[in-house]
Write a structure and sequence with these properties.
Blueprint lengths: L3 H11 L5 E6 L2 E6 L2 E7 L2 E5 L3 H8 L5 E2 L12 E3 L2 H5 L1 H12 L10
Antiparallel strand pairs: 1-2, 2-3, 3-4, 4-6, 5-6
Helix pairs in contact: 1-4
Length: 112
């Protein structure tokens, strides 16, 4: 199991140069970059959103990475990838993956 609060602290420490915010959601935490959702922090682990297929494929190629799936019978995410614990523990590597995910997010439309 993974502690969402610990994952949040690791993200903030790894990426002080990125505008991150967090909101509690369904027993976990949703991470936002520039107000756009891009990270799921839960007992499943730290999952980042990849809207570019090539970036998602690179993340899934990491040993131990997997598509986000909250429960065995729940749908598998097509965009979120759970990062391996070794990447989450490595501040520099985590920073690079946060940047890769956040750089491809679509800005939130004004007025919403």
């Amino acid at each position: 199991m993974t502690d969402p609060a610990d994952l949040q602290a690791r993200m903030l420490a790894a990426a002080p140069d990125i505008e991150l915010s967090f909101r509690k959601m369904f027993g976990g935490i949703m991470g936002y970059a520039a107000e756009v959702p891009f990270a799921s922090l839960s007992d499943v682990g730290l999952a980042l959103k990849f809207t570019v297929t090539a970036e998602r494929d690179k993340a899934l190629a990491l040993p131990g990475a997997k598509p986000l799936q909250y429960e065995p019978d729940a749908p598998v995410s097509k965009t979120y990838v759970v990062l391996p614990p070794e990447v989450v523990a490595d501040g520099a590597a985590l920073h690079d993956w946060i940047v890769a995910s956040a750089n491809n997010l679509r800005p939130k439309p004004k007025g919403r």
